[in-house]
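Example 9 (inverse folding). The structure is encoded as follows.
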């Protein structure tokens, strides 16, 4: 095991020695291993558990969580490590543990039912159901005994035991009703129009939810939701709506100054517990880092403001330093908890600041604010930025460069001191979808920032994924850990990997990436597409261990698989000019738009893709005919990249056989040849094409004219 890892970072070794392991000890999931020494007779999800439940006529107790989930740890300590609770569960239930990150299809289906029944969701997810996998009770965290308005877990279990013995038929009838209400929600084929009006409605909803004082959307708890930021940037580019850009900048600035951003080590915490972004929930997820890098990279591309590039660079540095596996790929998350308690690794007292920083403590107190953590007995505080550095430099009468240098030195001192503390546990499994998402972010940052090291790192990880998370038939697998690969790939895995491959092409212009993306997309269409209702199922056509195949149209912490797939399909249809791919994009968009017509702010991942798609009339197709290493080709490419045009497709068609290979994969490049021995660019906007040019200034003029005509 690696430093910071253990089967259960919150159990003592003494407890392990006096308890025998349960069935979860044979698993490889860090989350399941955390429960391997519980007195609860846990089963992993599988036929053994359900067969026993049916044979003994017992209800199923299903608990779903993940290894870095704080409230999962709390419920484990309070209930699943408790002998009395274990006795009730072992005598009356068949208990199953599921890692939501390994089986997102199971989690998605039962989370949807929990939200349907209770109006809310979260982890740990608590489900009680029949042996036929039909739930009749759902909730999230419950304390062992009732408190603060929450019913006690023991009381809930005993009540269910009584009902199972005395009113079992009623419980079965309730589960049938729940299931009959759920089935049409998962399979319905409501169709809608993916047009500019949907984009406008989504923007207006977000404007109404915007926190004009603190940035972000809604009130506490407040999630960064970077996909909202990306949609607003693209909406601004499409429409010229200044409020959209203002919301983006206020939100990103507030997040990067708040305690939800780790000012000492970099990286974004899961969410803020308050409306001002000051006090975080300390967990760090790879998926959150990926989306935040994408949002900051796009903000830099749109505004040219260096602070957004800086925050993306720091976030990337954190992931490469703390979450990268030596064999390839990136770990899933870092825990909120450490041996000294939730967030203890990240907290400081004023006395510690003074002792560690010495003569720079006075300046640090001006650069940073310390916000007391509510309920902390040690007067521990969260670090946030006191304000923008340029304005502080003026106030302190210190040159900006000197202030930045001294700030970096302060952060370095704090970082070295923090490294002496016990670190939070890491979830070291490598997931296809979150790894591919981070590779997409890393690649885009490499291209936008002109940093080939980022692109190289992304390409290495994609090679690792392609070599280690595919079966002998070339199908995608979901999870890699400790040398073991498990679980067939889900829609999110395919969609994210295809998106990463598409992103790698304009960063490298290696046609092999597009060829691989097109091949994987064909497999995705074959096994996930709902040919009757449009869109894509979460699990593939061979999945048999769930009673329903769900289609998700709304975004969660990351955009839905359908949103990502729609974006992939629009790009690939433009590249390949394949009518079948274009049709799949259209049907997917109608499925999402129809379901979300009343709440488009719930689909900002889709809206972001829609805003730079042919459906919004906001695309530019550019083919450069010329040698990729030629100075003229590079000058044209550099000119095209100076503009923030998220709907811009760039293909390079070299001379000779290399050009023919591009033609085979990307018919959109066919017939494009250099003129007069110079690199030549062909630009089309919508249905109109400009005469070919070789001068970068002419290209910029045409891009600006095409953007005005085609978008606004």
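The amino acid assigned to each position is listed next.
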């Amino acid at each position: 095991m690696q430093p910071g890892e253990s089967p259960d970072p919150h159990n003592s070794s003494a407890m392990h020695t006096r308890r025998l392991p349960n069935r979860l000890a044979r698993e490889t999931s860090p989350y399941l291993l955390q429960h391997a020494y519980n007195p609860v007779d846990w089963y992993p999800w599988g036929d053994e558990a359900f067969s026993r439940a049916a044979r003994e006529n017992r209800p199923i107790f299903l608990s779903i969580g993940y290894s870095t989930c704080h409230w999962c740890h709390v419920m484990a300590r309070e209930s699943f490590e408790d002998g009395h609770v274990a006795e009730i569960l072992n005598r009356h239930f068949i208990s199953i543990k599921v890692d939501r990150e390994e089986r997102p299809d199971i989690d998605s289906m039962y989370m949807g039912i929990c939200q349907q029944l209770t109006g809310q969701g979260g982890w740990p997810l608590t489900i009680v159901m029949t042996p036929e996998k039909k739930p009749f009770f759902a909730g999230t965290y419950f304390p062992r005994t009732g408190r603060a308005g929450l019913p006690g877990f023991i009381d809930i279990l005993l009540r269910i035991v009584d009902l199972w013995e005395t009113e079992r038929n009623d419980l079965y009838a309730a589960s049938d009703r729940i299931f009959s209400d759920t089935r049409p929600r998962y399979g319905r084929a409501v169709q809608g129009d993916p047009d500019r009006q949907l984009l406008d409605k989504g923007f207006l909803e977000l404007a109404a939810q915007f926190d004009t004082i603190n940035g972000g959307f809604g009130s506490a708890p407040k999630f960064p939701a970077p996909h909202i930021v990306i949609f607003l940037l693209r909406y601004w580019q499409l429409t010229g709506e200044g409020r959209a850009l203002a919301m983006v900048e206020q939100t990103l600035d507030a997040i990067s100054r708040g305690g939800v951003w780790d000012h000492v080590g970099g990286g974004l915490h899961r969410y803020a517990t308050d409306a001002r972004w000051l006090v975080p929930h300390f967990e760090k997820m790879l998926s959150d880092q990926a989306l935040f890098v994408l949002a900051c990279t796009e903000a830099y591309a749109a505004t040219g403001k260096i602070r957004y590039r800086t925050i993306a660079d720091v976030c990337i540095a954190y992931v490469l330093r703390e979450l990268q596996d030596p064999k390839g790929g990136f770990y899933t998350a870092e825990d909120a908890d450490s041996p000294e308690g939730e967030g203890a690794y990240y907290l400081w007292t004023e006395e510690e600041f003074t002792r560690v920083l010495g003569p720079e403590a006075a300046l640090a107190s001006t650069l940073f604010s310390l916000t007391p953590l509510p309920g902390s007995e040690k007067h521990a505080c969260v670090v946030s930025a006191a304000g923008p550095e340029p304005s502080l430099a003026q106030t302190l009468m210190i040159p900006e460069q000197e202030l930045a240098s001294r700030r970096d030195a302060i952060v370095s001192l704090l970082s070295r001191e923090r490294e002496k503390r016990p670190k939070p546990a890491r979830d070291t499994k490598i997931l296809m979808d979150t790894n591919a998402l981070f590779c997409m972010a890393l690649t885009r940052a490499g291209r936008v920032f002109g940093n080939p090291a980022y692109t190289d790192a992304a390409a290495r990880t994609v090679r690792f994924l392609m070599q280690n998370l595919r079966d002998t038939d070339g199908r995608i697998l979901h999870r890699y850990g400790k040398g073991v690969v498990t679980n067939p790939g889900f829609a999110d895995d395919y969609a994210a990997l295809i998106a990463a491959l598409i992103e790698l092409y304009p960063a490298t212009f290696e046609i092999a990436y597009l060829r691989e993306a097109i091949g994987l997309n064909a497999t995705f269409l074959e096994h996930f597409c709902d040919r009757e209702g449009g869109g894509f199922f979460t699990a593939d056509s061979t999945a048999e261990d769930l009673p329903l195949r769900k289609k998700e149209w709304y975004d969660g912490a990351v955009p839905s698989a359908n949103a990502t797939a729609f974006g992939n399909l629009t790009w690939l249809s433009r590249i390949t000019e394949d009518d079948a791919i274009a049709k799949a994009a259209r049907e997917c968009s109608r499925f999402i738009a129809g379901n979300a017509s009343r709440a488009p702010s719930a689909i900002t991942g889709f809206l972001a893709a829609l805003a730079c798609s042919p459906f919004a009339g906001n695309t530019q197709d550019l083919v450069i005919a010329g040698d990729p290493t030629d100075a003229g080709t590079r000058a044209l490419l550099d000119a095209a990249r100076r503009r923030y045009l998220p709907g811009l497709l760039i293909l390079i068609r070299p001379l000779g056989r290399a050009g023919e290979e591009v033609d085979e994969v990307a018919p959109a490049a066919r017939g494009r040849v250099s003129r007069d021995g110079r690199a030549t660019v062909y630009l089309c906007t919508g249905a109109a094409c400009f005469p070919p040019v070789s001068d970068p200034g002419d290209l910029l003029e045409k891009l600006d004219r095409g953007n005005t005509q085609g978008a606004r």
